[in-house]
Specification:
It is an enzyme of class 2 (transferase). Belongs to the hexokinase family. Pathway: Carbohydrate metabolism; hexose metabolism; Carbohydrate degradation; glycolysis; D-glyceraldehyde 3-phosphate and glycerone phosphate from D-glucose: step 1/4. The protein has 17 helices and 13 strands. By secondary structure, the chain is of the alpha/beta class. It binds beta-D-glucopyranose (BGC). Beta-D-glucopyranose binds next to helix 8 and strand 10.
């Protein structure tokens, strides 16, 4: 290769185009050899394409991309809030009928249901001012119920409530219930929520377009052996906000980064054109943004990778929840799996030899990303453990390094994308000090998610806005109990009819 072509090793600067090799060879060799070489070059993949860096580069977005994405998100928030524009908006900005943060005087015993996260839980919560005690139990929702009929789902939920009440000796009591139902719902009152579409792993027939509280009450009635009334239905983002606001009055955003992703925030009534409640004090309402649907109209196509497209294609809701699919725990493991699979096929990982597990959709769990990125030295203890679980037989330290690199690219992109949403909300609210209540398995367990987000949000917010990103504890239980407590107090005082104006003072 003396004819002016620079050859470099994989991973080094510079690379050779196939045409260049051929042109150089033509000057050096006989016609027959040239023909063979031409044929060989035709079937060889491009050297450029074979570098690890090139295969994963699409995960790296520029600062300007994130800035542009924030502007897009802001535009979508406004579109969702506008009366005229809402019907075609993808980010729906649902008013929640929760009007104010708690004042700490909430008290009593409450039941709560938490559906839509990693687990389904029933909880018993005692509120006594700042003191909160809680008992809870996780119940499994079998796969066939998650994708079965609505009646099966709500019968199963009612059965779990019965079991829980029986175990806690509560069957003879009448305890108000709050329902944390973490799916997009158009609320028409504090205890009326119409499911607009299932997300995450759920797809139960006959529930979209229906009031989930009515379906729950019907299932309870069918059993006839428990006396439970649901007074409030909330989204998990609202739960996170309420739970955190119980001790921090600056809390004005609730953020979930778990199986799915979403955020809610406190908006002035004058900006909520679709508000149909009263305009009494406080002139504000919590808005459930349902930002996971950003991109469902193609506005994120310019940053989507081939891996994102594949994940979407094989999901149970193709074309929907595009932003969520690029960020949340339900999809992150699968995005990561597709990249090493491709690297392996190109002979760039595991000596080209994979395993059935690595080739199986959904088999690379999102918790592996957190585990792999938690390795801090060159022993790669967690990474090797994950490789063992994936039945990979041959791996080198370099393989560990590459796997760690891919994980960090995907999780950093997720953290930065989520930051875009938070920064857009902070800029929109334009308050001086805001606490963001964050919860969800991804935020909780990933070793760098919090720090990455703080760094990116800082870059994107207007000067002068101060924010804190705080872990919110047990929002789905405590938050539901707090909202239910206020609803119950209003009902007992006969001051407000539940379902019309929500948590009004
Ligand atoms: C749902 C939201 C929810 C989020 C986090 C999304 O898929 O649409 O309602 O808040 O997941 O659980």
């Amino acid at each position: 290769m003396s004819a002016g072509v620079k050859v470099s090793e994989p991973g080094m600067e510079g690379s050779v185009k196939k045409e260049e090799v051929y042109e150089a060879a033509k000057k050096m060799m006989g016609r027959e050899f040239q023909t063979v070489l031409a044929a060989l070059l035709k079937i060889l993949p491009d050297y450029e394409d074979m570098l690890v860096e090139n295969l994963v580069r699409p995960f790296i977005l520029k600062d300007e991309d994130y800035k542009l994405l924030m502007d897009i998100m802001l535009g979508e928030f406004n579109k969702g809030l506008g009366k005229e524009t809402n019907p075609t908006a993808k980010v729906k900005m649902y008013p929640t009928y929760v009007r104010d943060v708690p004042d700490g005087s909430e008290n009593g015993n409450f039941l709560a249901l938490d559906l839509g996260g990693t687990n389904f839980r029933v909880l018993l919560i005692n509120l006594n001012g700042q003191e909160v005690t809680m008992e809870s139990k996780i119940y499994l929702i079998p796969q066939h119920i998650m994708t079965g009929t609505g009646e099966q789902l709500f019968d199963h939920i009612a059965e779990c409530i019965h079991k829980f009440m029986s175990n806690h000796d509560l069957l003879k009591e009448k305890i108000p219930l709050g329902f944390t139902f973490s799916f997009p719902c158009k609320q028409i009152g504090l205890n009326h929520a119409i499911l607009t579409q299932w997300t995450k792993g759920f797809k139960c027939e006959g529930v979209e377009g229906e009031d989930v509280v009515r379906l729950l009450h019907e299932a309870i009635k069918r059993r006839g052996d428990i006396d439970v009334e649901c007074l409030a239905v909330i989204n998990d983002t609202v739960g996170a906000l309420m739970s955190c606001a119980h001790s921090d009055r600056d809390c004005a955003i609730g953020l979930i980064l778990g199986t799915g992703t979403n955020a809610c925030y406190i908006e002035k009534l004058e900006n909520v054109e679709l508000w149909d409640g009263d305009y009494n004090e406080p002139k504000q309402v919590m808005i459930n943004t349902e930002w996971g649907a950003l991109g469902d109209d193609g506005c994120l196509d310019f940053v989507k990778t081939e891996y994102d497209r594949q994940v979407d294609k094989h999901s149970i809701n193709p074309g929907r929840q595009i932003y969520e699919k690029m960020i949340s725990g339900m999809y992150m493991g699968e995005i990561v799996r597709l990249a090493p699979e491709k690297l392996r096929k190109h002979g760039l990982l595991f000596g080209g030899k994979g395993s059935e597990e690595l080739s199986t959709r959904g088999r690379f769990y999102t918790k592996y990303v957190s585990e792999i990125e938690s390795d801090v030295d060159d022993h790669f203890k967690n990474t090797k453990q994950v490789f063992e679980e994936l039945a990979l037989e041959k791996y080198s330290d370099e393989d560990c390094r590459i796997a760690q690199y891919v994980c960090s690219l995907v999780s950093t992109r997720a953290a930065f994308l989520a930051s875009v949403g938070v920064a857009a909300l902070l800029n929109k609210m334009d308050r001086q000090d805001v606490t963001v209540a964050a919860d969800g398995s991804l935020y909780r367990f990933h070793p760098h998610f919090h720090d990455l987000m703080v760094e990116k949000i800082q870059q994107l917010v207007k000067p002068g806005i101060k924010f804190k990103l705080m872990l919110s504890h047990d929002g789905s239980g405590k938050g539901a109990a707090i909202v239910t407590a206020v609803a119950n107090r209003l009902r007992e005082s006969g001051k407000e009819s539940i379902g019309e104006n929500g948590l009004e003072n």
